[in-house]
Automatic annotation (TrEMBL):
Keyword Transcription: no
Protein keywords: Acyltransferase, Transferase
Species for this entry: Dyadobacter sp. 676
Domain N-acetyltransferase: 10-166
CDD domains according to UniProt: NAT_SF
Pfam families named among the record's database cross-references: Acetyltransf_1
Protein name, UniProt field: GNAT family N-acetyltransferase
InterPro entries from the UniProt entry: Acyl_CoA_acyltransferase, GNAT_dom, YpeA/RimI_acetyltransf
GO molecular function: acyltransferase activity, transferring groups other than amino-acyl groups
Superkingdom of the source species: Bacteria
Alphabetical list of PANTHER family matching this protein: ACETYLTRANSFERASE, N-ACETYLTRANSFERASE DOMAIN-CONTAINING PROTEIN
Keyword rRNA processing in record: no
């Protein structure tokens, strides 16, 4: 999918195998709070757990989202996040498979700007925009503020949220 960001300080580029260490770091940052709940685990145990989870997720995404775009989000030449997007997921709309930004770049409006760009693209293509989010993920508040609605729930943990352009 051709997609550019309005924030000119950010760029998207396709993920390559050289990005895997940075993508692991980004993924690890999304699990930090969870790992605080297992203080009896050593740092090595946590690192191995996160690495195995990242590898499983990465493989799953590559296998189950054929045709998707897997992008690195950069600020300057520094990798600050990832955006995985499927333009026509199951023929039902645009699916944000994953969006993650490193902690030091959060709460600066970057994610909100990316979402607004995605919403504009969805409106242009006349497709709904959806994302799965865990109920306890703080980003769910942003999605709600932007007009996303919960349309389904899985195992009481995952909410499928959707945004539709209204005329």
């Amino acid at each position: 999918m051709k997609f550019t960001l309005t924030n000119t300080t950010l760029t998207l580029r396709p993920v390559t195998s050289r990005d895997l260490p940075a993508l692991l770091e980004i993924y690890s940052s999304t699990r930090e709070k969870e790992l605080e709940r297992v203080p009896h685990w050593t740092d090595l145990m946590k690192k191995e757990f996160v690495s195995s989870q990242f590898n499983a997720q990465h493989e799953y995404y590559q296998k189950n989202y054929a045709g998707a775009d897997f992008w690195v989000i950069e600020s300057g030449k520094k990798t600050i996040g990832r955006l995985y997007l499927h333009e026509n997921f199951q023929g039902k709309g645009i699916r944000i498979i994953d969006i993650s930004i490193l902690p030091e770049y959060r709460n600066q409006g970057l994610g909100q700007g990316i979402f607004k760009d995605l919403m504009n693209k969805a409106a242009e293509l006349r497709r709904p925009l959806s994302i799965h989010v865990e109920t306890f993920n703080p980003a769910k508040n942003l999605y709600t503020r932007l007009g996303f609605k919960t349309i389904s729930e899985t195992n009481g943990v995952y909410h499928l949220m959707e945004w539709k352009h209204t005329i």
